[in-house]
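Structure ticket #2291
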Amino acid sequence: MKDFFDKDQDAMIESIQRNITEDWSSEEKQWEACRSKTTTCAEKYAQESALLACDAYEGVEQDDTLGDEYYFKALPVVQKRLAQGGVRLAAILNRIFSGNGRLQSI
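Resolution: structure written out below.
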């Protein structure tokens, strides 16, 4: 956060919001969608994270110290996962408070 946003959390949030409305806008509806009949599609989200983790830790050995190269490679993924989590939480809350018992399906 120090290198990219000068330790400014608001700047980081604005960056993620800008990415949602610009760079990732075509993906947002897919993030909200859930084909499962469960409340949250947690299994889908966990599978996504597991796949990303496998890629992120490729070549890393136990007791390795992760440096700047790892951080800079992982930051865009972390920001996108935060954005996905926010969009998905909003979809769940909208469903709960709208009285509609179903999540959007694609």
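Closing remark: Residues 68-98 form the longest helix (31 residues).
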